[in-house]
Amino acid sequence: MKDQLIPANLNPAQASDALNELLEFLKEQHSLTSRAIEADVNFKGLSKARKYSIYQQRKVSGIKLPDILAMIANHYQIEIFYNPSTNRYFFETISGNAPGVKEDYIHYYYYYFSHWNQSVSYAVITFFGQFSKARLTFFDTDGAPIFQSGKGKVWRSGATLFAQLPNSHPEHMSLICLYVGNNRRLDEFEWMAGTYASTRLRDEAPVCGVVLLRKIGVSESVIPETELKAHEIPDFVVKLLMGKRMGVLPTLAFKQSDLKKIISSDF
Question: How do the domains of the chain map onto residue ranges?
Fold first, then answer.
């Protein structure tokens, strides 16, 4: 059992512990010393930041500990996980490459109908590894990431591009099916359309619907280099998705009449 973490959600003490273990990971697995990391990210003070008792006595350049952790994780494109049974953090490079090896990340707005909010919302889906991997990132109203799916596999079969994405808890999984035809290169698509099926994290209700993807661009960062908080969903996208949604309430059906109550296109 592992939980993926977003640095902004950690308190300073947790961020300091995670930072210390991340620095050990970079040293042991990739021969990156603290001095080399400081030079790479143009920051000094890791020796203080990795020990919370010292950090409390002397702030490091006025930067908060979760921000320091996020800065290093983003620079080296590393995901942070936590195992509650062992109380330890562990790490994975997002692309599978060694830190510092360049990777192209192709970002799309991911428009969908939110069954919880009863409105059309958006996230960002990022493809990498030459469209062999993907992840979904959800943002708050200020454009800061608040939730990320696990790193999922992507494969093309016939005219369909499939993406299977684990959520932060392994019992939740999303399957996205996008129609891409047979003769087009994937990096040519400005728009993609398809469907998704998943379970809602809040109550495990099965949900599904139509998704529309709109290309943002290509970058060397897993987070798109754009002002996400200023993005407005086009009106035609809202109209398309409001009419194409379906879900199932988290209620057991014991008889035929129960089905009308729990399956609805107005869920």
Answer: 3-93, 105-264
Angstrom distance (rounded) from CA 107 to CA 134: 10
The number of CA neighbours under 13 Å toward the Cβ of 125 is: 30
Rounded CA-CA distance 119/223 in Å is 24
Cα–Cα distance measured from residue 43 to residue 41, given in angstroms and rounded to the nearest whole number: 6
What's the burial of 206, exposed, middle or buried (CB within 10 Å: 0-12/13-18/19+)?
A: middle
CA pseudo-torsion sign 97, 101, 107, 113: positive
CA distance 231 to 264: 30
The pLDDT of residue 219 is 83
Residue with the two structure tokens 């959800």 = 138
Question: Model's pTM, two decimal places?
Answer: 0.63
* Residues ≥6 apart with Cβ < 8 Å to 153: 132, 133, 134, 163, 164
Apex 13 CA angle, 9 and 19, nearest 5: 80
Of residues 156 and 227, more confidence is placed in: 156
**Taking the mean position of all CA atoms in its chain, how far away is CA 21?**
22
